[in-house]
Amino acid sequence: SALVELRDVWVEYGDKIVLERVSLQLAEGGFVAVVGPSGAGKSTFLRLILGQEAPTRGKVLLGGTPMRAECGPDRGVVFQRYSVFPHLTALQNVLFGIECAGAPLIARLFGARRREARDTAAAMLAAVGLEHSLHVYPAQMSGGMQQRLAIAQALVKHPRVLLLDEPFGALDPGIRLDMHALITRLWQEHGLTILMVTHDIGEAFKLGTRVLAFDKRRHDPHAPHRYGATVT
Ligand code: ADP
Ligand code: ADP
User: What is the best residue among 38, 42, 79, 199 to mutate for testing ligand 1's pocket, by most ligand atoms within 8 Å of CB?
Assistant: First the structure.
């Protein structure tokens, strides 16, 4: 059965329809690329799956149960920029990823549990090639390193779904290729399900096992709703 399922989902803001009648099933282990013009509803779609937003109508299910709010252990997210905390070192950022995934209000870990968490965080940083940057702050890192850090923070809690919102859009082409290799390896090694929004069609077809195209559809200009996304 599907890991993520949308059943007849609508998202409306006032009289503006952003998502209209979207039904889809995403299989576990897939790498789904989401493309479409600006304003087509791609970020809204990710927010639904993060549980940051509820549909106006319809259902959003994760593993067959209704989506809950974010910061659960089952979803990790990386944005184009600012996914990590500037006042925390690389290690502290990834530790935050672990603590956030724990039981509510266990804000800090102590003693043996903290040492264990530190080892886990350091291993995750090594997995993204940041083993020599544990105590470095994001401001001292290149864009590519910051995105590696963001990926480590998102993955350290072993989420079932990794959501990537234009994760490589701000990087130089050469660095982007390195990141493609990294994310493909992590996807395979961790048996992840990935949902990635991208403006780069080449990237979508290179990385995705499935490509979802969001379309900003124009309705009759005299009708009350002029926009609505359809998914193909
Ligand atoms: P992108 O197309 O790069 O994903 P955004 O999603 O940031 O851009 O924004 C697209 C449009 O959505 C912008 O015109 C912005 O003003 C509008 N928008 C985004 N979030 C909100 C919001 N919370 N309330 C009203 N409008 C919003
Ligand atoms: P995309 O990510 O594809 O650029 P978005 O999901 O950001 O598209 O936005 C889709 C449409 O929804 C846009 O027209 C945007 O202005 C609108 N929108 C997004 N969030 C809000 C909001 N909170 N309030 C009102 N309009 C919004």
Answer: 38
Please choose, from the candidates 3, 5, 60, 1, the residue with its C-alpha nearest in 3D space to the C-alpha of residue 191: 3
Separation of alpha carbons 74 and 60, rounded Å: 15
Q: Closest Cα partner for 93 from 160, 50, 139?
A: 139
CB neighbours of 87 closer than 8 A, spacing ≥ 6? 137
Is the CB–ligand 2 distance for residue 36 below 6 Å? yes
Any idea which ligand is nearest the CA of 56? 2
Q: DSSP assignment, residue 108? A: -
**Residue whose CA is at the smallest distance from ligand 1 atom 9:** 39
Residue 224 tokens read as 């009350």
Are 209 and 183 in contact by the 8 Å Cβ rule? The answer is no
Amino acid identity for residue 230 in this structure: T
Confidence band for 46, pLDDT divided at 50, 70 and 90:
very high
Tell me the pTM: 0.80
- CA distance linking residue 220 with residue 144, whole number of Å: 44
Please answer whether residues 153 and 120 qualify as being in contact, where contact means their C-beta atoms are separated by less than 8 angstroms.
Answer: no
The pair of structure tokens assigned to 194 is: 């990935």
pLDDT tens digits along 139-177:
999 999 999 999 999 999 888 899 999 999 999 999 999
